[in-house]
Specification:
heterodimer, A: mainly alpha, ABC transporter involved in vitamin B12 uptake, BtuC, 13 helices, 2 strands, 72% helix, B: mainly alpha, two-stranded antiparallel sheet, 11 helices, disordered C terminus
C-alpha cells in the first residue's frame, strides 16, 4: 500500500515538474498562473488536513493564519526589504505566533465550542485588519507590492514576475511542505494525533497530554497556512481583509471535505477541483459558490470520504 | 455627552441586542437538545428579512410578514431537518455542523440569485412611523416597538419552556435524551419541532430587523458571528446565557462605537477574550456544554 502511494506521489511530482513545458503549447499560459495559485493553496490545505483530518479539530479560523502570513509578507515587502527568505520568514513567524496564542485559548474547549471560538478569533483579526487604517490599508488592503528579485548567489537574473519562475517557486514550497506533512503524520507524533482524534479520553488515560498535542497540531497547521499566505501575497502582489474572513476558512473546509479529509492527498484533489472550477464558473456566473455549496452538502451527506476517498475505495484492497 | 444622547445609545444597543437575542435563543435551544450548532441560522434570519421585502412589495402590509415569514422558513426548516439532519443522528455530530454550513452557503447565494445583490430598503409600517418622547428623548417608534416585540416573543418562549408539558419534554431532552426516549416520548419528533421553532424565531428576528438595518445578502453571514459570540459569552446550551450574551453584545457594540469610532466590535471581542480566559464554558455554561473543558 505504501509503495503504491510513493509511486503515485513521484509520478504526480514529475507531472508538476514538467507542466510548464506544456504551457502555451497544450494550454494557455493563463493556466500556469492558475496552477501556481492552486499549488500555493495546497500548502494551506496540507496544514488544515493535519488539524481537521488527522487530529479531528475542525477550525473555522484558518483564514486568519493565511491572512496573517499574507499581511506579514506584505509588510516585509513594503517596509523591510523585498527579500524572499525574509518575506517568508516574517509571514510564517506572524501566523505561528498567532496560532500559539489562539491555540492556547481555544484548545481548552472541545467539539463545537472549539469551532465557534476559532471563528470568533479569526473574525477579530478580520475586524482589526478592516479597521486598521494605514498600517493594513483598511478595506482596500495593500496593493502593488514589490516582488523579490530572483538571484542565484548575488547575481540578479530576473524577478518573480516571470510566470515559470513563480510556478517553480510554488512547487518548491509545496514539495517542502508536503514532505514535512508526510513526515509529521507518519511519525510517532502523527500516531498520537490519530489517538486524540479517535478517543480523546483514552489517550489521556494512556498518559498523553492531549491538550499539548492538540496545541502543537494547531500551531503546525497555522504555520502551514502562514507559509501559504506569504507565498500568496508575494505571488498576487496584493492583500485584502477578505483573506481573514471566516467565509474563506469555510472555503478551505469545503475544499478539504470535497477531496476527502484525513488523507493529505484528498484535500489536494479538492483544492484543485475547487480552484479550477471556481475560476471557470466565476467567468460565467456571479453566484458560482452555490454549486460548490450543493456538491459539498451532498458529499457530507452521502460520501463523507470525499472524491479522493471514494476513488481509492473503488480500487480493490489487494491492489492498493 | 448629554444624558439624552447616552439614553439614545443605550436604547439602540438594547434594540440590536434584543433582535440578536431571538437568534441566539434558537441557536442555544437547538444545541442544548440536539448538540447541533446551526450555521444556517443566520441564513434563516436573512430569509425572514427577504420574505418581508416580498410581502411588503406585493401586499403593502408589513404585518402579514410576521405570519408569512415564520411559516415559510419553518416549512423550509422542517424539510431541512427531515431530509438532511435526521439521517446523520447517531454519527459524528460534527458532520451535522459541517452540513449546516453548506446549507448556509447555498441559502446565501440562492437569496442573491432570487432577490439580486443590491441592498433592499424596507420602511417601518406607517402606524409605527415617526418618533415618540421617551424620558425626554425623541426615539423612533418602530425601534421601541421592536424592543417590546422581541422581549415579548422571548418571554413567550420562556413561558412555553418553563410552564408547559412541551417545555418540560424539551428541557428533560436536553438533560438526558435517551432517558426521555425510554419514557415513551418520540425524541426525534421533539428535535424536529425544536429545530422548526428555532428557525421560526430566527425568521421573526429577520422580519423585525428589516426596517432597521439594510437587507442584503451578507446579513446572515454577519449576524451569525454576533450570535455565536453571544452564545459563547453566555454559555452554549443555556437559555439565560443566550439572553444575557445577546444583550451584552448589543450594548458592547454600541458603547464600543462611542469610545473608539470605527472599532465598534473591539469592545465585543475584548469582552469575549476576558470571559474565555476566566470561564471558558461561558457565564451561564456548565462544563458539559463546553464539551468538557480540558
Amino acid at each position: 500500500m505504501i509503495k503504491r502511494r510513493i509511486f503515485f506521489e513521484i509520478a504526480a511530482g514529475l507531472i508538476l515538474l514538467i507542466l510548464p513545458l506544456a504551457s502555451d503549447r497544450l494550454f494557455n499560459a493563463y493556466y500556469l498562473d492558475l496552477a501556481t495559485r492552486i499549488i500555493i493553496i495546497w500548502i494551506a490545505l496540507l496544514g488544515y488536513d493535519i488539524l481537521a483530518g488527522y487530529t479531528g479539530l475542525v477550525s473555522f479560523g484558518q483564514a486568519m493564519f493565511f491572512g496573517l502570513g499574507a499581511y506579514g509578507a506584505a509588510w516585509a515587502l513594503l517596509y523591510v526589504a523585498p527579500s524572499l527568505p525574509l518575506v517568508l520568514l516574517i509571514g510564517v513567524a506572524a501566523s505561528t505566533t498567532a496560532a500559539v496564542i489562539i491555540g492556547y485559548l481555544s484548545i481548552r474547549t472541545r467539539g463545537v465550542y472549539f469551532i465557534l471560538l476559532t471563528l470568533v478569533f479569526a473574525e477579530f483579526g478580520y475586524q482589526a485588519v478592516f479597521n486598521g487604517g494605514e498600517i493594513t490599508g483598511g478595506q482596500n488592503g495593500l496593493s502593488s507590492l514589490p516582488k523579490a528579485p530572483l538571484e542565484i548567489g548575488s547575481i540578479m537574473i530576473s524577478d518573480w514576475n516571470d510566470p515559470t519562475a513563480a510556478y517553480y517557486l510554488a512547487v518548491v514550497g509545496f514539495v517542502v511542505a508536503y514532505i514535512f506533512a508526510r513526515w509529521i503524520v507518519g511519525s510517532p507524533f502523527g500516531s498520537t494525533l490519530a489517538a486524540v482524534r479517535d478517543n480523546d479520553d483514552r489517550a489521556t488515560y494512556l498518559g498523553y497530554n492531549t491538550a499539548s498535542i492538540k496545541r502543537r497540531a494547531f500551531t503546525i497547521s497555522g504555520m502551514f497556512a502562514g507559509f501559504s499566505g506569504a507565498l500568496w501575497a508575494h505571488h498576487q502582489s496584493y492583500v485584502s481583509p477578505e483573506l481573514f474572513h471566516w467565509t474563506l476558512s469555510g472555503q478551505f473546509l469545503i475544499m478539504t471535505w470535497l477531496g476527502g479529509v484525513g488523507t493529505l492527498l484528498g484535500p489536494l484533489v479538492g483544492g484543485a477541483v475547487f480552484t479550477y472550477f471556481a475560476d471557470f464558473l466565476s467567468s460565467i456566473m456571479k453566484n458560482w459558490l452555490i454549486i460548490f455549496g450543493v456538491v459539498y452538502v451532498l458529499v457530507v451527506l452521502y460520501a463523507p470520504q470525499g472524491l479522493w476517498g471514494t476513488l481509492v475505495s473503488l480500487v480493490p484492497r489487494s491492489a492498493r | 455627552m448629554t444624558a439624552e444622547a447616552v439614553l439614545t445609545q443605550v436604547l439602540n444597543g438594547l434594540t440590536i441586542g434584543a433582535v440578536l437575542m431571538l437568534i441566539a435563543m434558537g441557536l442555544t435551544i437547538i444545541f442544548g437538545l440536539m448538540e447541533v450548532v446551526n450555521f444556517a441560522h443566520g441564513a434563516l434570519y436573512m430569509l425572514g428579512a427577504y420574505l418581508t421585502v416580498t410581502v411588503v412589495a406585493t401586499t403593502g402590509r408589513f404585518w402579514l410578514s410576521l405570519l408569512f415569514a415564520p411559516i415559510v422558513v419553518g416549512a423550509f426548516a422542517l424539510l431541512f431537518e427531515l431530509t438532511m439532519i435526521r439521517p446523520l443522528y447517531g454519527r459524528d455530530p460534527l458532520r451535522q455542523v459541517l452540513l449546516t454550513f453548506g446549507v448556509a452557503v447555498v441559502l446565501r447565494e440562492g437569496v442573491e440569485i432570487v432577490w439580486g445583490p443590491r441592498v433592499q430598503l424596507l420602511l417601518p409600517p406607517s402606524a409605527l412611523a415617526g418618533s415618540v418622547e421617551f424620558f425626554g428623548v425623541q426615539y423612533p417608534t418602530y425601534r421601541l416597538a421592536v424592543l417590546v416585540a422581541a422581549f415579548g416573543i422571548a418571554g413567550f418562549v420562556w413561558l412555553v419552556l418553563k410552564r408547559t408539558n412541551i417545555g418540560l419534554i424539551v428541557r428533560s431532552g436536553a438533560f438526558d435524551r435517551d432517558m426521555v426516549d425510554a419514557l415513551g416520548i418520540n425524541v426525534r419528533r421533539v428535535f424536529t419541532g425544536v429545530f422548526v421553532a428555532g428557525a421560526a424565531l430566527a425568521s421573526l428576528a429577520g422580519v423585525l430587523v428589516g426596517p432597521l438595518r439594510s437587507v442584503q445578502p451578507d446579513m446572515g453571514n454577519d449576524v451569525i458571528v454576533d450570535a455565536f459570540i453571544a452564545v459563547i459569552v453566555g454559555g452554549l446550551g443555556s437559555l439565560p446565557g443566550a439572553v444575557v450574551g445577546a444583550l451584552l453584545v448589543g450594548m458592547a457594540e454600541l458603547m464600543g462605537a462611542l469610545v473608539i469610532p470605527g472599532m465598534a466590535k473591539a469592545a465585543v471581542y475584548i469582552a469575549v477574550g476576558i470571559v474565555m480566559i476566566i470561564k471558558p464554558a461561558g457565564l451561564f455554561g456548565s462544563d458539559r456544554s463546553a464539551g468538557g473543558v480540558a
